[in-house]
């Protein structure tokens, strides 16, 4: 009887072990199939050319430049991020030099360079009383990322944020088509 009991016990243990192995094999097969089909789906989906609205835009300087048809403005703007000596060498003596809100500036009539925090490199460029209308700005570069009333300056301000900088449009009020100043502040 002992031999029969031991044999039954060994057979039972063998059956249980083989059932567990077949379950493990089935689970690994199912997991492997799921993984490979997930990879196949990933590989079969082509990259989309459509960008989401939250993607950072890189072409802020290009957009700023495209707002102006005046070659004097676009030529000056191309000197942004150069130092004072390089700008003076290429653009000549400024019409006016001074300080505005703590930043040194060089005004050339058709555009002004700003050197914030004592920097020798121009980091901001502004065009006052440009011949561009707010409607053209909207058509050209779309809706602003942020807009608000600047109560200190009594101006309506719209900001268009890009990876390389920010275009700031200032108008007398929210509904005005007249633009007072267009700024470009570099991100660097």
List SSEs in N-to-C order.
HHHHEEEEHEEEE
Helix content: 25-40%
SSE class? alpha+beta
Q: Characterize the main sheet.
A: 8 strands, antiparallel
Euclidean distance between termini CA atoms: 89 Å
**Overall mean pLDDT:** 79
Total domain count: 2
Q: What is the tally of helical segments?
A: 5
Outline: globular
Percent range for β-strand residues: 15-25%
Low confidence ranges: 1-19, 21-56
Number of strands: 8
Strand order of the largest sheet: 1-2-3-4-8-7-6-5
Radius of gyration: 33 Å
Protein name: DUF4309 domain-containing protein
Biased composition (Basic and acidic residues): 41-59
Signal peptide: 1-17
Region (Disordered): 36-59
Account of the protein in words:
It contains 5 helices and 8 strands. A hairpin with a 4-residue loop joins strand 2 and strand 3. The chain has 2 domains: 47 residues; 127 residues. Helix content is 39%, strand content 23%.
Chart the SSEs and their pairings.
Elements: H1 2-44, H2 60-66, H3 71-77, H4 84-91, E1 96-100, E2 103-107, E3 112-115, E4 124-128, H5 134-141, E5 146-150, E6 155-161, E7 165-171, E8 181-186
Antiparallel strand pairs: 1-2, 2-3, 3-4, 4-8, 5-6, 6-7, 7-8
Main attributes of the structure:
39% helix, 188 residues, disordered N terminus, globular, 2 domains, 8-stranded antiparallel sheet, 8 strands, alpha+beta
Care to give the gist of this entry?
This protein is an alpha+beta fold and 188 residues long.
């Amino acid at each position: 009887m002992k031999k029969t009991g031991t044999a039954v016990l060994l057979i039972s243990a063998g059956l249980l072990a083989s059932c567990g192995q077949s379950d493990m094999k089935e689970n690994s097969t199912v997991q492997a199939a799921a993984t490979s089909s997930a990879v196949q789906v990933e590989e079969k989906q082509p990259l989309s050319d459509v960008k989401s609205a939250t993607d950072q835009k890189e072409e802020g300087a290009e957009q700023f430049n495209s707002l102006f048809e005046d070659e004097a403005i676009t030529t000056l703007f191309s000197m942004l991020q150069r130092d004072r000596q390089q700008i003076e060498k290429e653009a000549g003596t400024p019409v006016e030099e001074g300080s505005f809100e703590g930043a040194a500036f060089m005004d050339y009539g058709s555009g002004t360079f700003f050197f914030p925090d004592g920097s020798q490199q121009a980091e901001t460029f502004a065009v006052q009383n440009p011949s561009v209308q707010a409607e053209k700005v909207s058509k050209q570069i779309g809706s602003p990322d942020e807009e608000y009333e600047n109560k200190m300056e009594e101006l309506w301000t719209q900001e268009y944020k890009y990876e390389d900088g920010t275009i700031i449009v200032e108008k007398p009020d929210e509904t005005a088509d007249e633009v007072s100043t267009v700024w470009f502040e570099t991100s660097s």
